[in-house]
Amino acid sequence: MADINWILKKFEELTPYELYAILQLRNEVFVVEQDCVYQDADNKDLLSYHLMGLKENKVVAYTRIIPPGISYTEPSIGRVVTSPKERKTGLGKELMEVSLFKIKDLFGNLPVKIGAQLYLKKFYNSLGFITTGDTYLEDNIPHIEMIKP
Q: Is this structure's pTM higher than 0.70?
């Protein structure tokens, strides 16, 4: 995936255009594609780092990297999303690998905790995440807590 340019910024460093592109991609997938009405703006964005994967200057992949002590004791990765047009290319795996590398860079060698959509459990297992809790519903979608030790 040499054609992806990875950019990590704190919230206050995002340009209005970058923020708009991030929200547009998150809405395209989480609200429209997954048919889920939920409060995306949860105040965690303000405290987080934002990893954008750009292809031809368009945001096609994104994660929100949440510092320790906000969602969990550990740092966390959330709002993991790839453009529907870029699926089945390995971009999701690369996105998570870059996110994990950035967490190590920012916070050191700490465990990383996520709340994953249940249908992606095998995907996260392949990246070294293990299940730490029971299945729960979040916005009517089955999720599971996982940690990468």
A: yes
